[in-house]
Amino acid sequence: MDQISPKLLIPQSFLVNRDDVTSQLGLMWELIKAPLLVPMLKLSVYICLGMALMLFMERVYMGIVIVLVKLFWKKPEERYKFVPIEDDEEHGSSNFPVVLVQIPMFNEKEVYKISIGAACGLSWPSDRLVIQVLDDSTDSAIKSMVEQECQRWASKGINITYQIRENRTGYKAGALKEGLKRSYVKHCEYVAIIDADFRPDPDFLRKSIPFLDHNPDIALVQARWRFGNSKP
After folding, report:
1. Looking at residue 83, what DSSP letter applies?
2. Per residue in 6-56, pLDDT tens?
3. Would you say residue 79 lies in a domain?
4. Which of 41, 152, 185, 214 has its C-alpha lying 20 to 30 A from 81's C-alpha?
5. Are residues 59 and 118 in the same domain?
6. What rounded mean pLDDT belongs to the chain?
7. pLDDT class for 148, splitting at 50, 70, 90?
8. What is each CA distance from 77 to 159, 208, 210, 218, 222, in whole angstroms?
9. What are the CA-CA distances from residue 215 to residues 76, 188, 218 (Å)?
10. Strands, E assignment, 2-106
11. Nearest residue to 111 via CA among 232, 204, 1, 228
12. Torsion of Cα atoms, 20 then 23 then 26 then 31, to 10°
């Protein structure tokens, strides 16, 4: 059987310095890098161009949306009936609806004073405001501090009640639901829920309740959030 010379299959350059593996690998890389890398680089360029085009289209779309919002969007006061509730010297505070403010808590040692103080500082007639602190804390020391804070505000004439329960069924939602079962809240017309780390502005109820009071088709008003510690 005739033997085939390796020179017919392997280039002459591969036969030179056969023991020099590094040189051979380098030469092989030179031979294959162009057909291997060029298509990959082209594909990468096309992908980058496609992503850049998508980002550009997103910017254009958002710009159009912002312009349309600026031109046609109406403020809530313009879209819905909004009549501020004013103090009436003749009828007193009877024109103000009774509002229940619920504050659910769970071991809120650092912030409980903030939310309780903010709720008690709401600009609303005291005889038309019921504040309910729903404490599900498992730490007895924190429970004691929260209760003392409620008692401190109650001594100032604020209608605030400290409420606990035997179990945490339903967690926060369960606490809110349990609070609505109390007899002293049955006459409340609206409910405002404030998380333990929230600090509503004093005019929060005066800005939100009129939307509910004058628009029967509105069942919920969500206030805008701002972060009090956003700046160091």
Report:
1. -
2. 444 445 544 444 556 677 666 777 777 777 777 888 889 999 999 999 999
3. no
4. 185
5. no
6. 85
7. very high
8. 31, 10, 10, 13, 14
9. 12, 18, 6
10. 99-105
11. 228
12. -100
Asked if 221 and 211 touch (Cβ cutoff 8 Å), the reply is: yes
Contacts with 118 (C-beta within 8 Å, 6 or more apart), sequence order: 194, 198, 199, 200
Instruction: For tokens 């980058």, name the residue.
Output: 48
Per-residue pLDDT at 106 exceeds 90: yes
Mark whether 207 and 128 lie in a shared domain.
yes
Q: Name the one residue in this structure whose structure tokens are 């031979």.
A: 31
What Å distances lie between residue 62 and 67, 70, 103, 189, CA to CA?
Answer: 9, 12, 38, 41
Phi, psi dihedral angles at 77 (to 5 degrees): -65, -25
Burial of 216 (0-12, 13-18, 19+ CB in 10 A): exposed
Question: pLDDT tens digit string along 44-101?
Answer: 999 999 999 999 999 999 999 999 888 877 777 677 888 888 877 777 788 899 999 9
Residue 219 lies in a domain: no
**Both tokens assigned to 181:** 């079962």
Alpha helices in 73-139 (DSSP H): 76-79, 112-120
Separation between Cα atoms, residue 119 and residue 199, nearest integer Å: 8
Q: Tell me if 225 is assigned to some domain.
A: no
Residue 162 belongs to domain spanning = 99-214
On the CB side of 176, how many CA atoms lie within 13 Å of its CA?
Answer: 14
Q: What is the CA radius of gyration of the chain?
A: 35
Q: Are residues 60 and 138 in the same domain?
A: no
Across the beta sheet with 99-105, the strand order is 160-163, 129-135, 99-105, 190-193
**Six token digits for residue 88:** 């009436």
